[in-house]
């Protein structure tokens, strides 16, 4: 999810050699110390030879199973094969450390498998027992070891069924990092601890960094601190703190705002191709052989008469939304050899986002399951592609 505040203009929601075994995410780091070498672009990047079509789903909020099933059936018929699904730590380990309640999410995993989806599990939203200050439900726990232990339990419980996990969500903005300045070094410590515990549970698990909200930043009252930090600066600080050792795929948010997907990137512009600036940082630190997967991707198609002050993501027409979404994926696959899965934001909400909010107009399918032009455009392009190409 992304947000744009008038003060901060913060948009939220969104040479290294590998030894590849198993799922393609276990690795031996052979990076030389010192200055990063240039990137060998002719080398195939792992985790890019995949079906690129995915979406964000909210099945954990859906009460009736027939709606869960209809959602997945329609998504499957549209050619989607990836599901980015939030797994709320607060619901899985709700009362006490070490006491797990898996039934709800086991059922969701069963459904995703039945309909042929691979899951990208977003792991965040701590339980109350893990924090003294519970004023923000998505703030990190007081002791990062509690989160790392949860990641271990999750990976172990779903070993062989869920092969991709995201470690947190948008740590470069308030409120995802709590009532305090954002902290790239602090997030790297979370990432490090979670990565090591995840690999302990399953060496083949694919660990993805948290997607960063695209933002120009908002300064904190404390000098040198940030309420929300420009994601380019945040990623740079992550690499300086050693983050490159502790993820297999970089997650990115990519929203087109009011521009076509081919628009060139600039540091003072929020658009789809801004991800190229993240890629430059990766390559500058020698992280050439990792893919970028898109956690939240898309254009907003709010009505033409929508109040301008509510156009957080700017707007395009429904026709442009449909065309830009499929064109952006095709453009990236043709020109960006490191691009992997694109999780469209979002497939269908469950009725808790009113039409007065701009994020209502990202959907592929209405709450009543009426397909939008975006749905039809994705289905049209995927039906023309051979599954053997993935």
Please explain how this structure is put together.
There is one protein chain. 28% of the residues lie in helices and 13% in strands. It is of the alpha/beta class and 390 residues long. It has one domain: Alpha-Beta Barrel (TIM Barrel). Strands 5-4-3-2-1-10-9-8 form an eight-stranded parallel β-sheet. Strand 6 and strand 7 (226-228) form a beta hairpin. The longest helix is centred in the middle third of the chain and has 18 residues, at 184-201. The protein is globular, with a radius of gyration of 20 Å.
Label this structure with key terms:
TIM Barrel, alpha/beta, 390 residues, globular, single chain, 10 strands, 9 helices, disordered N terminus, 28% helix, 8-stranded parallel β-sheet, two-stranded antiparallel sheet
Enumerate how many helices there are, as a single number: 9
Number of extended strands: 10
Mean pLDDT: 91
**Beta-strand percentage range:** 5-15%
Class, according to the CATH hierarchy? Answer: Alpha Beta
Distance between the termini: 28 Å
Helix content: 25-40%
Rg (C-alpha, Å): 20 Å
Question: What would you say the CATH architecture is?
Answer: Alpha-Beta Barrel
Helix/strand class: alpha/beta
Oligomer, anyone? single chain
Q: How do the strands and helices of this protein lay out in sequence?
A:
Elements (H helix, E strand, L loop, with lengths): L52 E5 L7 H13 L4 E7 H4 L10 H12 L3 E7 L19 H14 L6 E4 L16 H18 L4 E3 L9 E2 L6 E3 L2 H10 L9 E6 L19 H10 L7 E7 L19 H18 L3 E6 L28 H11 L7
Parallel strand pairs: 1-2, 1-10, 2-3, 3-4, 4-5, 8-9, 9-10
Antiparallel strand pairs: 6-7
Helix pairs in contact: 4-5, 5-6, 6-7, 8-9
